[in-house]
Amino acid sequence: MKVLVTGGASGIGLGIGEHFAKAGHQVILADLDGAKAQAAAATLPGARGVALNVTDPAQIQALAQELGSLDVLVNNAGIQHVARLEDFPPEKWRQLIDIMLVGPALMTQAFLPAMREQNFGRIINIGSIHALVASPFKSAYVAAKHGLLGFAKTLALELAEADITVNTICPAYVKTPLVEKQIADQARENGLTEDEVVSTIMLAPMAKKAFIGIDEIAGTAAFLVSPAARNITAQTLVLDGGWTAR
């Protein structure tokens, strides 16, 4: 299969790309930092790295024309900003929405015609526990991730007649560079030490008290493209260590 992963130069995106590449799939890692994407792809068998701004329709359409058909699209690109709403720069609020909600819509729109033509496609959005619950100081991120679930469900209904599925994987905290930065930001906003942020904010709601592994997310993505998941669509797969059970 041909697999495209956005935000693929590091963190969750790279982990998913690595999993698919080692399974023998053709992987394209797309990232705003093209050089970093190429360097990451060079470490994977048969992978390719490309520069891509997921908020730029022209860049997306150009990549879609270049790649042609695509079997699996993983909408993973994301950023975070932690601040009280009254201190949240408007341009930063809009940027988070553009990258994590508008971006997946633009990416899917560009690659859907080829998926329809071949009557096969697997669209996987990387959401978050914050697509289901909220935390203070993350209004833009929480709004974007909540919106992503509605987008996925609507699109799944539009594509029901084809062998194309749309699902969202929602992990709780994963130890990535994005989360490492959040720890420092949350410590500042809440007046806590970084260790206290981890124990009282990040892991406290999780019954298992453990960060989610990137390998768990990659394995879930691999399941969603397998024949066993051909009728799983419009679903939210939650990897939260028991967070939402309470």
UniProtKB/TrEMBL annotation:
- Give GO BP annotations, semicolon-separated: monocarboxylic acid metabolic process
GO MF terms listed in the record are:
3-hydroxybutyrate dehydrogenase activity
The UniProt family comment states: Belongs to the short-chain dehydrogenases/reductases (SDR) family.
Q: Which InterPro entries match?
A: 3-OHbutyrate_DH, NAD(P)-bd_dom_sf, Sc_DH/Rdtase_CS, SDR, SDR_fam
Q: Origin, by domain of life? A: Bacteria
Q: Which NCBIfam families match?
A: PHB_DH, PRK12429.1
Which species is this UniProt entry from?
A: Gallaecimonas xiamenensis 3-C-1
Q: Give the protein name, as stated in the record.
A: Putative 3-hydroxybutyrate dehydrogenase
